[in-house]
Each structure stands twice: as C-alpha cells, then as structure tokens.
Design goal:
Helices cover 32% and strands 31% of the residues. The chain has eleven helices and 19 strands. The two termini are 34 Å apart. The protein has 418 residues and is of the alpha+beta class. The longest helix has 19 residues, at 259-277. α6 (188-198) packs across α11. It has helices at 3-17, 57-67, 81-84, 125-131, 151-167, 188-198, 245-257, 259-277, 316-322, 334-344, 397-415; strands at 22-27, 40-52, 72-76, 100-112, 115-120, 146-147, 172-181, 204-209, 212-216, 221-226, 229-233, 235-240, 286-295, 299-309, 331-332, 355-359, 365-368, 373-377, 382-391.
Length: 418
C-alpha cells in the first residue's frame, strides 16, 4: 500500500475504534525507532479488563498478566508513586481516571511500514473499517483556558525550589503547572487529529476509557522491553524551533553544546541507570546514547538512551514498577523531588506524567510518558493539560516559564481553534 493509503486507513481505523467504549491507538508517525515494533497499533473492544487502585495496582497487574498471556493495553497514573513511596496527594481530582487500567482488546490491528495486519478480529475487519463513513466534524464550543499559577507565582516557586537545591535537598526537580477549562465541550477525536497534525510525535496516542480521554502528542518513551532488553529514553533539554533554516541549525547546535542542558540530562541519566540496576543482570546497564538531539515540529529535544538486560529473576511488571515514575518527570534524588512536587505543585498530576502503552503476549512492552497531552472527562466536561521543566541551580526562572509556554504551544494553538 502507498503512504497515502496507509494514512487514509489509519484515519478510518481510529474513527471506527473510537466508537467503542474502550480503545487505544498508538502512532509513531513513521519516526525512525530502533526499539519499537509497530508503526501504529490500534486496539478496541474489551475481552477482559483490570481496574486497580493504589495499594494493590502493580500486584494486580502482575497477576492479570500471568493469568492472561494476551495483548494488553493500559494506563499507569503518576499517583501510583504512592504504592512505591508513601508521599500522598490531597489535591482535588477533577479528571477521575482509574489509578491503573488495562484491557485485553477484542480487536487489534498493527500497521508496519506499508502493510496492515489483523492480530485479533474477523478477516473482513479491514473492509468494515473502510466502509465506515467519517462523520462531519462537530463544532466545538469556545474554551475559557485558565492557569493554576500567575506568572509571578510561578517565578516565586522556582526561586523557592532553588533554595532547596542550595540547601542540598535535591539537585533537580521537574516542576509543573496546569492549564484547564471547565464546562468544556469538545470532540476528542477531531482535537486529537488536529493536535497530531500540528505536532506529530513518535509516541502519540488516543486512549478512550468510557467518558475519559487522553489525547497525546508525546515525544518521550518511558520504558520498552524487547526480548530481554529494557530501554528507557528520558528527555531533558528543550529549545524552540525557528522558521529560518540557518537560525534553526544554530539553535540546535547551541542545545547540543549547552552545559546547563547537559547537566540536567545527565542527572536523569544517572537516576535511570540506578532505577534499571534494580531489574538488571549485574553489569549490563549501559548508556547507548548520551545527549542525542532530536527535532520535532515545535522543539528540538535532548534525549539519552539507557538499556540493560532484564534479570531472569525479575518479572517484567516488577521492572516497570522499579523504574516508576519516570525520572525525567520527578528529578533527583527521586524521593525528595517527589515530596517537593507534592508540596509545591497546585494540581494533582493523575494521568499527567504517567504512562500508557501495550504488553504483548510474549511479555514485550512499550510505554510512553504522558506529556504534551490533553486530558478530558466528557462526563463532567473538565479539560486539562500540564507542562513543566527541570529546575536546577543554574535555571533562570523567566526562561523556565518561557519553556513551559513553548511546550504548551501546540496544544494552545489547537484549542484556540475550537
């Protein structure tokens, strides 16, 4: 099939899948990836499912995986941190996603290169999808997007966090702020399509659980397993794009050579290396790429890749738990950073900075980091997205605020057209 035919099929398949109560659509947008198995994978319909609260979530998931040697797609919220370290979170939860949710799909389609494969479902499933008409786009109502912080409040908190760094409490912290809209009425599918049109990224996805939606244009992988190899690819280091080619190249080069950005990145690389040692065959943890520069429509990013061989004594679900939540969204040291996040951030993270992805019948898996994502509860009409950045001793509070707005720019541009 041609690229145009594949693109048309993916559009139709997502439309078809989104009519089910539960669906998960993962799309790499044809980015080159040495660790992924699918260009696009579409799961919908429920054969079996697991919803588990904090306290028993990872144990329940391990049992579910052992009992069902099947494809599983699911969600891990950031708040599962409290199953690993008792940190607590008294903030209001407006989105009301389950703490952990996994489902075994009734239908499953994989797109690899220029071919389509039905992994679960009837032989005529492709014909059914292609025969389904795409409805007219709904008209969304204008959104009143608000922020939990004023600019001056955000700058003040950055300075407070830097005092913690000066005292030696932490080296680095990922500090986030929420943008939100109440009484929001949107068509989640059309918003997702617009978001990925503006910002196609390698770990994008559309996840629907009843009336709750994740519309994600995330560029970051949390953790993957292929065979016995675990790989994590934290992002730390961001620079804006320019429409001027010479200036854009200069910005990219400056990011690559920035000592500040390298310092931020290597702190998290060391944290991830430490997390992986809990699951690794001794001596196998290694940094495959340090300070790699990758280009996306709105930003250049500094990404490192760390891998290890999974110990035969460690179940792969425990390997996920041992690295959760991802260091790129906490800071270092992880425990103290999470405590300060809970103290100073004003919003419950919930789904944001959690992860969603899949587990295959042979125990391989791939999970993203939920950033650059719109979260929506259609039942209570609450819409939310969060952005953040790494705060270090060398951070400039004004520039950190500008980086937050840069990271939010794709979402803002999409929602401003509502």
């Amino acid at each position: 099939m041609t690229k145009e035919q594949i693109s048309y099929f993916k559009q139709k398949a997502l439309q078809y899948a989104s009519n089910f109560d539960v669906c998960c659509y993962l799309d790499s947008h044809t980015y080159q990836d040495n660790y992924g198995k699918h260009n696009c994978i579409i799961a919908f319909g429920v054969e079996n499912e697991l919803t588990a609260p904090i306290g028993t979530a990872f144990t329940s998931l391990k049992t579910f995986a052992q009992q069902n040697k099947d494809w599983m797609f699911g969600l891990l919220t950031y708040d599962l941190k409290d199953e690993i370290e008792e940190i607590g979170n008294q903030k209001e939860d407006q989105l009301k996603f389950p703490d952990l949710y996994f489902f075994i799909p009734k239908y499953l389609i994989s797109v690899k290169e220029n071919s389509i494969h039905i992994l679960k479902g009837e032989k005529n499933l492709i014909d059914q999808i292609l025969a389904t008409p795409i409805p007219e786009k709904k008209t969304d109502k204008a959104l009143n997007i608000q922020n939990r912080f004023t600019k001056n409040e955000y700058l003040g908190y950055v300075e407070t966090l830097q005092q913690h760094i000066k005292r030696g409490d932490i080296y680095e912290i990922n500090f986030c702020q929420e943008f939100f809209a109440e009484n929001a009425e949107i068509d989640p599918l059309s918003i997702y399509n617009r978001l990925t049109e503006v910002s196609p990224t390698p770990f994008a996805g559309f996840f629907k659980i009843g009336s709750k939606y994740i519309l994600s244009a995330t560029p970051e992988r949390f953790l993957s397993k292929r065979g016995t190899t675990l790989t994590s690819q934290p992002i730390k280091g961001t620079a804006k794009r320019s429409t001027d080619l010479a200036e854009d190249l200069a910005i990219k080069t400056a990011l690559k050579n920035s000592k500040k950005e390298q310092a931020e990145n290597v702190m998290i690389v060391d944290l991830v290396r430490n997390d992986l040692t809990k699951s690794a065959v001794k001596g196998t943890v290694k940094v495959d790429e340090l300070f790699g520069i990758y280009t996306f429509p709105q930003v250049h990013q500094m990404i490192s890749s760390i891998s290890c061989e999974l110990s035969p004594e460690v179940h792969y679900i425990d390997a996920i738990k041992n690295t959760f939540p991802m260091g790129s969204m906490t800071g270092a040291p992880k425990l103290r950073a999470m405590q300060l996040i809970n103290q100073y951030e004003r919003s419950k993270r919930g789904v944001y900075s959690g992860s969603f992805g899949y587990i295959s019948p042979d125990g391989d898996f791939d999970f993203n980091v939920i950033i650059r994502s719109i979260l929506y509860n259609a039942e209570n009409r609450y819409l939310s997205f969060q952005v953040g950045g790494a705060i270090t001793y060398a951070s400039d509070a004004e520039k950190e605020y500008e980086e937050c707005l840069l990271k939010a720019s794709a979402i803002m541009s999409v929602l401003s057209r509502v």
